[in-house]
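Troubleshooting log. The previous structure file for this entry was overwritten by mistake, so regenerating from the original sequence record. Sequence copied from the archived sheet and checked twice against the printout by T.R.
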Amino acid sequence: MESQTRALITGITGFVGSHLAELLLDEGLKVYGLVKVRSSMENIEPIKSRLCLFEGDLADSHSLRRVVSDIRPDFIFHLGAQSHVPTSWSSPASTMEANLLGTLHLFEAVRQADIAPAIQIAGSSEEYGLVDPASLPITEETPLRPLSPYAVSKVAMDYLGYQYHRSYGLRIFRSRAFNHTGPRRGEMFAESSFARQVAEIEAGIRPPVIHVGNLAAERDYTDVRDIVRGYWLGIRQAEPGDVYNLCSGTAHTMRSVLDALIAMSNVKVSIEIDPERLRPSDVPVLLGDASKFERATGWRPEIPFEQTLADLLDYWRDKLGSPARRNLRLVA
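Regenerated output below.
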């Protein structure tokens, strides 16, 4: 009898990793996760008993080699990273260490284990950075002009994946996902911060004031559940070594995202700019073209953005014990 297919997820306890773990379990895979000591297990608590978790750290090449050698995975989804753009301004060195050196350690662990798994590395639309409006929507051929230390680290990861594929034959799927959100999104991200503040105001634990950053920025949002479905398709069907955008093809201003969340509530609020939420430089518009990935895999986003925001708001309501709910239930 053929052994069960094994998938290793770095960053399994995070926002995207937890959703991917749920999907892979539903697909019948044996799912392993790399977790740091003292990592929060909140996101994976409902499925923790079905996972095989290994303690390790991407910054520690020795622990990573041990984990990869012990598991010998068929698939590796590399989601472990410092993923918050503003944090990269205050901690550029640690961002580069976590994202670039962590990826290097992972690739070397695969080589030393003498295995040939398919590997997905999570790049970002932030790699494109400063894009001429006349060049929108962004394709994989758009020049990379990163505007933050985080974006630079992702460019480095991306090209390291290309180099290891060309030099050593590693089967690497290079993904560049545009903004994605949904339940469990960390509150440090703008749309999740908006949702939490609305939920707190509903619960009466916050004054009716929402603090915001740059509301003029435009972002191409996809539901996280569609993104992880794309990762699972891409790691099996995309061309190894090549790079692919994953996005919806529709841009939303941060103001429209905020307005949509407020409209899902009955609260009356005022809005104040918080200088601490403004970045030294910000990407004005991120609008992507995923047609290359669609041709390769047949993937298309399926969950409407209004549903994504409703589920995100209900996630925060549940965490705060708020009685207010307005889940559209457009998807199962």
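DSSP finds ten helices and 14 strands in the chain. Archived copy saved in two places this time.
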